[in-house]
UniProtKB/TrEMBL annotation:
This protein's name: Pyruvate, phosphate dikinase
Residues covered by the PEP-utilising enzyme C-terminal domain: 525-875
GO molecular function, one term: kinase activity
Domain Pyruvate phosphate dikinase AMP/ATP-binding: 68-302, 309-354
Active site, UniProt feature: 462, 837
Family: Belongs to the PEP-utilizing enzyme family.
Length: 883
């Protein structure tokens, strides 16, 4: 068989087979290594085995496809030529790194083996050639450790403790204080551990070492922790990981060598300065491993000024090339700088905004690129989250101050294992996770927490990086406190906090505080306002808000809402004395009594609407007529029913009978929505009167009013005609009474599937449609929103649904109804106004769908308004670019 499939892509010497656009095939790391090599950045030569190969490996019973081995050999020959070295050649050995890298970034989730190609002869040869015996055997012991861990699953701790033992025996503290002779000894001890754990000798043959390692990287793709990470981060549709095999460069060759990690800007604040850490005479993951304390990157400026300048210049090049802030891994070998990885850096919400605004200012991107690529809706969400209310805090007991790794305030009950944290979250608690340090195994518990605290680790530790990515407040390296896993407690020496006790953490200052501190809403920066102004330049779909109160509406307007898409009038029925009148109305025996109760309710409703019209001045206000079934307003317990009977001077029996008569087998499908108004037109009359009288009054007080009256739960044209007649007749009466007229619209919710199907019959009588996608989803799936929790986990687990359909609109089914109704509606009535007012109006993916359907607006809760604005703009830009 002549299978000429390309499994391996090479890079190096200013060239590459691949480039940055090939993430899917080469993984993020491989694509970026290729790109950097192309642009002439100093990248050691290497090759990338494609993600397709990984996929084939799994499909093929974990065997390599034909031709792969030969292509790998070719790749090695290329590296040998480049460096004038030989793989396994003791005279001048080529050593390799084997690294995983999928199309989506999964930091620390999969495995890396460094210094591959080592054996006794090679180590001796390397010592001789470099005249640096210490370096050769340091590299050797690292290799045995990593290979054993990654390939054979022998815990890294076994080697850590062997090393600690040797250090104790030699009476030294730091790894670097061990002599070359000690390291030779250590290599033997490591081999003994390998033999003991596996029953085999440590493999000498470099090619065999390489094959094992490649398979281990393929294997790590399906490790439990990698699968969990993908699940939490909703990474789906990837076929596997790529494998990068690259010539080693050495940061452990002495004082002019080292390795480090950095962000091109501060990932917390966005400030334009290098942000990172490095270690001299160190290799690979030493910086993040926490065994030695790394130095801040600015110290490199003094230690190796030329290298530092070069690093700065390179970061500028990379930012320009990628049009994004970069997260870089580098190694310095005897004052020579190499870049081993670059990727778009994770950052907090505030940092994202500042970087976007600065990038435009610096001419790296234009406004459109900034809006589309530099701030995500999730990052925007972070900015809208609470902070500590310093004024309301009287005294606070700070029990420790650590590094402020990820800003924001978090309050919760403290738990000490990832598992306990996840369990507590399920029972509805707010959780703070406290760990000595976190590892990729902790991501489940971290995700379940409001905030995270560790007693060890730096600003680029696992906890810090992951928390920042999710925008969760996080304090790391808080060594003022001691965490005791056994006791499930933490203490600063004076106070001890046990599992389940309240703790507050401030990720902006690094403070860890006893108890529950009060929170307040966030303050929005000028950069935020500037950025959101750009957002609106690219957006043509309107964003409204769902609000029932003037104060919420005012807040939403500050966030950029352009009207109310849904005011639920029933909320107004519950407040204060109103509920009494509502109940009196429900208990009435005849229309006359009902009308009397309604007349007493009218002033309250009117007052609420007046507030809304004045707050919205100039923007439309959509008010929905009463929607829930009447029994929701009646008491349920016996005592409450007795009280009610006493209050109204009627018999308990009468109350009981009325409650029983209104009881429904299936309230969701019962006597509610327009069905109420059809049975009791006097309710529709009262509400219409309240709306229009309030509008007239607001207008007289100088506001510009645009009332829109919305009839809920319509399923046929005739239902709407019935209610429309009541509304119009009432309106005429109001106008006559007041001696003035105003414009108003009458529209309907589309939330019953039948309404969507006969939208052409409804549209002639409606000025607008508003898709009530909560009910539409309930009735299309036949899933009760309140009971879905009982089976949704199984559905998600078995991929029967890919997400909660009440959070993200089901485009295939529910979306089809929306599209159908929009088409039918507009075909019968050109210019029919279309909007959405379900929860989906605040969900970015669903907003993109609404944009594609040509909806005029989405409506969502006040705090999601900025998110909806950004989502609408990003979709508009994407559509524009597609054209
Ligand atoms: P991760 O995906 O966990 O970031 P990497 O594949 O980037 O893992 O490898 C981890 C570290 O190993 C790198 O940051 C770098 O320090 C070191 N490393 C990887 N490849 C090489 C190489 N060719 N030469 C020297 N060090 C390397
Ligand atoms: Mg790794
Ligand atoms: Mg890396």
């Amino acid at each position: 068989m002549t299978d000429k499939k390309k499994y391996v892509y090479q890079f190096g010497a200013g060239k590459a087979d691949g480039d940055r656009t090939m993430r899917e095939l080469l993984g993020g790391k491989g694509a970026n290594l290729a790109e950097m090599s192309r642009t002439g950045l100093p990248v050691p030569p290497g090759m990338t085995i494609t993600t397709e190969t990984c996929d084939q490996y799994y499909k093929n019973n974990q065997k390599w496809p034909e031709g792969l081995k030969e292509q790998i050999r070719e790749g090695i020959r290329f590296q040998e030529e480049q460096l004038g070295a030989g793989f396994g050649d003791p005279e001048n050995p080529l050593l390799l790194s084997v690294r995983s890298g999928a199309a989506a970034s999964m930091p620390g989730m999969m495995d890396t083996v460094l210094n591959l190609g080592m054996n006794d002869m090679v180590a001796e040869g390397l010592a001789e050639r470099t005249g640096n015996e210490w370096f050769a055997f340091d590299s050797y012991r690292r290799f045995i450790d990593m290979f054993s861990d990654v390939v054979m699953g022998i815990p890294h701790e076994s080697f850590e403790s062997a090393m600690q033992k040797l250090k104790d025996q030699r009476g030294v503290k730091e790894d670097n204080e061990l002599t070359a002779k000690d390291l030779r000894d250590l290599v033997d001890r490591f081999k003994a551990i390998y033999r003991r754990e596996t029953g085999f000798m440590f493999p000498n043959d470099p090619m065999e070492q390489l094959e094992f390692s490649i398979n281990a990287v393929f294997g790590s793709w399906n490790s439990e922790r990698a699968k969990k990470y993908r699940k939490i981060n909703k990474i789906t549709g990837l076929i596997g990981t790529a494998v990068n095999i690259q010539a080693m460069v050495f940061g452990n060759m002495g004082e002019t060598s080292g390795s480090g990690v950095l962000f091109t800007r501060d990932p917390n604040t966005g400030e334009n300065k290098l942000y990172g850490e490095y270690l001299t005479n160190a290799q690979g993951e030493d910086v993040v491993a926490g065994t030695r304390t790394p130095e801040p990157i600015k110290n490199l400026k003094k230690a190796l000024p030329k290298v530092y300048d070069q690093l700065e210049e390179m970061t500028r090049k990379l930012e320009k090339a990628y049009q994004n802030m970069q997260d870089i891994e580098f190694t310095i070998q005897e004052e020579k700088l190499f870049i081993l990885q670059t990727r778009n850096g994770k950052r907090t919400g505030p940092a994202a905004i500042k970087i976007a605004v600065d990038f435009v200012k610096e001419g790296i991107v234009n406004k459109q690129e900034a809006v589309k690529n530099l701030v995500t809706t999730a990052q925007l969400d972070q900015l809208l989250h609470p902070q500590f209310d310093d004024k309301a805090i009287k005294d606070k007991k700070v029990i420790g101050v650590g590094l402020p790794a990820s800003p924001g305030a978090a309050v919760g009950k403290v738990y000490f294992t990832s598992h306990d944290a996840e369990d507590a979250k399920i029972t509805g608690e707010n959780v703070i996770l406290a760990r000595v340090e976190t590892s990729p195994d902790d991501v489940g518990g971290m995700h379940a927490s409001e905030g995270i605290i560790t007693s060890r680790g730096g600003m680029t530790s696992h906890a810090a990086v992951v928390a920042r990515g999710w925008g969760k407040p996080c304090v790391v390296g808080c060594d003022d406190i001691v965490i005791n896993y056994k006791n499930k407690s933490l203490t600063d020496g004076n106070h001890t906090v046990y599992e389940g006790d309240w703790l507050s953490i401030n990720g902006t200052t690094g403070e860890v505080v006893l108890g529950q501190l009060p929170l307040k809403p966030p303050k929005l920066s000028n950069d935020f306002k500037k950025f959101m102004k750009w957002v609106d330049e690219f957006r043509d779909m309107k964003v409204r808000t769902n609000a029932d109160r003037a104060e919420d509406a005012t807040k939403a307007k500050e966030f950029g809402a352009e009207g109310i898409g849904l005011c639920r009038t029933e909320h107004m029925f519950f407040e204060g004395e109103r509920i009494v009148e509502v109940r009196r109305m429900i208990m009435s025996d005849n229309e006359k009594e009902r009308r009397e109760s309604l007349a007493r309710l009218l002033p309250y409703q009117k007052e609420d609407f007046l507030g809304l019209f004045k707050a919205l001045d100039g923007d439309p206000v959509t008010i929905r007529l009463l929607d829930p079934p009447l029994h929701e307003f009646l008491p349920h317990t016996e005592d409450e029913k007795k009280d009610l009977a006493k209050q109204f001077g009627i018999s308990y029996r009468k109350v009981k009978d009325r409650v029983a008569a209104l009881d429904e087998a299936n309230p969701m499908l019962g006597h509610r929505g327009c069905r109420l108004g059809i049975t009791f037109p006097e309710i529709t009359e009262m509400q219409t009167r309240a709306i229009l009288e309030a509008a007239i009054e607001a207008k007289e007080q100088g506001a510009v009013v645009l009332p829109e009256i919305m009839v809920p739960l319509i399923g046929s044209g005739d239902e709407l005609i019935d209610q429309k007649n009541v509304i119009k007749e009432t309106a005429e009466k109001v106008f006559k009474d007041k001696g003035t007229r105003i414009d108003y619209l009458i529209g309907t919710m589309i939330e019953v599937p039948r309404a969507a199907l006969v939208a052409d019959e409804i549209a002639p009588h409606a000025d607008f449609f508003s898709f009530g996608t909560n009910d539409l989803t309930q009735m299309t799936f036949g899933f009760s929103r309140d009971d879905i929790g009982k089976f949704l986990p199984d559905y998600l687990e078995r991929k029967i649904v890919l997400h909660d359909p009440f959070q993200t609109l089901d485009q295939k089914g529910v979306g089809k109804l929306v599209a159908e109704a929009a088409d039918l509606g507009r075909a019968t009535k050109p210019g029919l106004k279309l909007g959405i007012c379900g929860e989906h109006g605040g969900d970015p993916e669903s907003i993109a769908f609404c944009y594609k359907q040509g909806l005029d607006y989405v409506s969502c809760s006040p705090f999601r308004v900025p998110i909806a604005r950004l989502a609408a703009a990003q979709e508009a830009i994407a559509q524009q670019e597609n054209k």
